[in-house]
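Tutorial sheet, problem 5. The two components below are modelled jointly, 520 residues in total.
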Amino acid sequence: MKWAVETRGVLLINEATGAVVTVEYPQAAIWDLLTRGESNRQIARKLCAIASLDPDAAEALVRETLAAWREAGFLAREEDPSG
Amino acid sequence: MAPPVFALPVFDKWLVYAPLDRVTALVNRAALEDFPEELRAALGGQAEPEPQPRQGAVCPQFLGIVPTRACNLSCAYCGFGATRHGQEMELRLAAAGVDWMAEFAARSGRPTLDVHFFGGEPFAAPDVVEVAVHRTRAAAAARDLLPHLEMATNGVFNEARARFVGDYFDTVVLSFDGFRAAHDRHRSGSFDQVAATARALSAAPSDVCFRVCVAEDNVEQLPETVDWFAEEFRPTSIGFETLQPTPQSDRAGLRAPDPYVFAAQFRKAARAAGRHGIDAVYGASVIEGLRFSFCPVGNDSLILHPDGRISACYLLERDWQARGLDLNLGRLGPDGEMELPEEDVRRVRELAVSKPRCGTCFCRWSCAGGCHVNHSYPGCAACFDDFCIQTRVITACALLDGLGLESMADGLAADAAEMRRLALRDSDALDGGRRCR
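Model answer (structure tokens):
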């Protein structure tokens, strides 16, 4: 799995499948925070300010985004004991 | 009124400089003394108007964010009084600042959204930096603007953070004072971490500028420092600033360098940097563009502080106040309500123009008086100080370089008596003018 930061977001490249996806904001922020080891809860807290979301909406967006990335093969598994 | 023409002695010749006409010449004594009017006429071109602050509504070039005044170092010369813990900006205040600037940039037809980070150390409040960075990029994308992010940092953080900086920042100004002994003496023993960060950033796409604080103890090493920086790292540029004395630097036994020694060593360092394809910068001697202000003050840049204050300067409010200055411009509320009273904007713009010491100095539109708080404050001495001396010598060398006279510039910077003769003149005006002693 490789990724690159670009002007409008992040480019994800699945080397196994050749799939390439451009992730725009606010999901691009989720990718950055996730790859730097932040928990889902920490990501959601920052997402409230990054995307002007209320806490519930931010948590839902994190959950849905991670599920979509797992589905697309960009995430192998979720490791987040904090939930 | 005719545009000013300045004349400076360089050995047996005179360096004549008409900044508004963008003309520089080297002439002999006869041309200067016997034919001043003819010389003035010959130098005349299409003169630009004197640089002036803009009129009308505020027009910031960038938003500056001070996430916190806290810092994870306590450098020997730092007068900020920073501690490890201090007020942090609320995340929604940072977001509100970014949104305001994004709206302004889009409304003004700007191509970029420019956000700069200052401290303390910005990463003493990492959440604020991360949120503001992503908010900037999201706001730019939503408005078809290019995000442009800059940061001044001490570089004392881990590899993951260095990667974040390298990935997301266009320009990073990294404080790095050179070899281990000097750097550790100046900057709390942080050499190993800063060198690691410098290495990581050198491999990143960001432009990296090393900012070297030059004191008496490292001034003689500047050329060697540049060679080492170039061989070990890959900075885009190296900026040199002389130590600004503080009670802390006095207690640590650190002193500013002799201005002539600094000018000579900067010259050598710049030549070394040029051989490596690196820009060496002394901020007060940039002659490519004319300006009325050395810094953000007067240029409408907005610096957002943790308490919501908006000011024109990122230095401490108490330091301006000690100089009788008010550099506050307004306030931003956490819900985005911006107050920038016109009279405050006008007051700061006018302040940036009034510098009596600079009246007949040939650097008046390149140095532009230096820092408003530490150098050209109201009531400052009218005579040239060490900052003026080094700036005048370095700028004269740059003008000679522009004429293709690098050897003469090298000779000037190697000759203490010639440097003094050039630096300590009462007036540079071709036809006399105000006297400064």
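Marking note: The beta strands of chain A are 2-6, 9-13, 20-24. Full credit if you identified this.
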